[in-house]
Write a structure and sequence with these properties.
Largest sheet: 2 strands, antiparallel
Strand content: under 5%
Number of helices: 14
Helix content: 55-70%
Distance between the termini: 40 Å
Mean pLDDT: 81
Order of helices and strands: HHHEEHHHHHHHHEEHHH
Structural class: mainly alpha
Strand order of the largest sheet: 1-2
Number of strands: 4
Radius of gyration: 24 Å
Oligomer: single chain
Shape: globular
Amino acid sequence: MRTGIRLIGTGTAGAIVAAAWVVPNCRTSEGALNGFFALGLALAAAALVAGWSALTPWARAGRWLALGLAGQACALQLMDAGTRIHYQHYRLPTQALADPVLRWVLAGIGLQLLIVAYGLVLHRGEIPGWVRNSRRLALLAAGIAACGCVSAAVSRDPQFWAAETGMAVLIELVSAGNILLFALALPPAGLKPLARRFDRLLGEAPLPERVTLDRFALLAALWTTVLSALLAWFVYQDHPHLADEVVYLYHARYFAAGELVMPPPPVVPAFQVDMIENQPDKWYAVPPMGWPAVLAVGAALGAPWLVNPVLAGHTIRLTCLLLPQECTRS
């Protein structure tokens, strides 16, 4: 029975990926994969988690994890990123309902909300006992308020900002509730064997005299790099989104070409870019040269969008070298 359910989960995941590969909505007008394909990958991962954890002590936790994966992927689809130069904002429900694809995404978030609310109701005897402590309640309220203040980018329209902030806070609360239910569903008897497996996989040597990177640090750095690269490609579509980013990219490109300045463009009014100085004999970016010089490495390789993900992975690596006691388990 368990093998059959796993086969169904694996087959469902494969079918989702295959469908996302051929569905036109999962590609841009140029034929490249877009963010909806990433949604398909997340749904496939959710199907695998639910299928392979079924009929095991991890079944309930697996279902909550699958729901969290699908819900977070749906929430990301509501972000208006694209290739335009602008701050990223949530598409409000009225805008999402007008789109034939996003209305299903919105329905997925609504379904997650109902399931999480039902799950929290089932645990209504446990949660109030935890928040009854006034200090914990104050910390919880402060955390929600702090997250809510930065949950949405600023906007010129106060009404839109208030609506977007409310929507963002709701999505964050649903996600937090989903994570809480996942944690409550973890089988206590299975956590210690799982911890031992992770120790064998990632290494459990005591802190050596000479600090080195263990498998845990290397895998964490690799995971950060790969996940950041996927987000940069699928969500941000390897494209700058702010005026500063456009200038940095121009700066990096002519650095990569071995130039400190560019010749003036043939039609100056057509190249009036913010923070670009146009002079009679040269054309150059005015920001400091440090970051463009680093970005020039990616520009020379034809992949400037990959520079930040690689640096993020190296940040994890350097953190583990600088703070070995926090990154090494004894």
